UniProtKB/TrEMBL annotation:
<dbReference type="InterPro" id="IPR036291">
    <property type="entry name" value="NAD(P)-bd_dom_sf"/>
</dbReference>
<dbReference type="InterPro" id="IPR002347">
    <property type="entry name" value="SDR_fam"/>
</dbReference>
<protein>
    <submittedName>
        <fullName>Dehydrogenase</fullName>
    </submittedName>
</protein>
<comment type="similarity">
    <text>Belongs to the short-chain dehydrogenases/reductases (SDR) family.</text>
</comment>
<dbReference type="InterPro" id="IPR050259">
    <property type="entry name" value="SDR"/>
</dbReference>
<dbReference type="Pfam" id="PF13561">
    <property type="entry name" value="adh_short_C2"/>
</dbReference>
């Protein structure tokens, strides 16, 4: 399927690796010009070079921390008026909420709620004027099925989810969509942290811990970053113009609810 994205400008945050990289690669493969951001310049440029090589697309690396004003300004200066915005940032630490400081909460809110909102504020009016825009926020399946150890993430990402629910309805008539992608267990560095923690808690090997976790997923496995990237690309497509304000789970059926 041709997703109708050739020549579109896409800004993808936290894209040097993992799900962000996969989203950037899928969009590049569909013919987008892609700008990618992340904190580590060397890794980011290596990622940009690899995506250029595999897709032939124009891919520009813009180093910076998207959770900071300086990082956002650098990204927007490099990619003014994007047609597609993929918001993403590393998840905050796990732990007992009783032990988190005010600084911990502020950092989580800044990275996982406020930074996406600021970027949407900076780009959405241009999208409405051009009558095309696709915004995808990478959040987490814990928005629908929270875990106590992910208190910082639960709170910050739920705040973003509520904000998007209102914004999406406001701009839908302009062919601008705003959706959230909710990853479950995707095979990335962060998922390996959960495997390690599970192994320690159960007193078993990492291999056995992973096998136990996979048994809890109806699909019987962790998802791949590439699968996640393709889901993102579809939400950005011309064909997805009637899908907005949604929270799409990419979790292999792990969430047990009906709604």
């Amino acid at each position: 399927m041709d997703l109708g994205l050739k020549g579109r400008k896409a800004l993808v945050c936290a894209a040097s690796k993992g799900m962000g990289r996969a989203c950037a690669e899928s969009l590049a493969r569909e013919g987008c010009d892609v700008w990618i951001t992340a904190r580590h310049a060397d890794l980011l440029e290596a990622t940009a070079a690899a995506i250029r090589k595999t897709t032939g697309a124009k891919v520009t690396a813009v180093p910076g921390d998207i959770a900071t004003e300086a990082g956002r300004q650098a990204a927007l200066a490099a990619c003014s008026d994007p047609d597609i915005l993929v918001n993403n940032a590393g998840g905050p630490p796990t732990g007992d909420f009783r032990k988190f400081s005010a600084a911990d909460w502020s950092a989580a809110l800044e990275a996982n709620m406020l930074a996406p909102i600021y970027l949407m504020k900076a780009t959405i009016d241009g999208m409405t004027r051009r009558r095309f825009g696709r915004i995808v926020n990478i959040t987490s399946s814990t928005v629908k099925q929270p875990f106590a150890s992910l208190a910082l993430s639960n709170g910050a990402r739920s705040g973003l989810t509520g904000f998007v629910a209102g914004l999406a309805r406001e701009v839908a008539r302009h062919n601008v969509t705003v959706n959230n992608l909710l990853p479950g267990s995707i095979d990335t560095e962060r998922s390996e942290v959960f495997v390690t923690n599970h192994a320690k808690a159960r007193g078993i090997s990492r291999e056995d811990a992973r096998a136990e976790l996979e048994k809890e997923i109806p699909a019987g496995r962790f998802g791949s970053a590439a699968e996640f990237g393709e889901a993102c690309a579809f939400l950005c497509s011309a064909q997805a113009g009637y899908i907005t304000g949604q929270n799409l789970l990419v979790d292999g059926g792990a969430y047990p609810g009906t709604f």
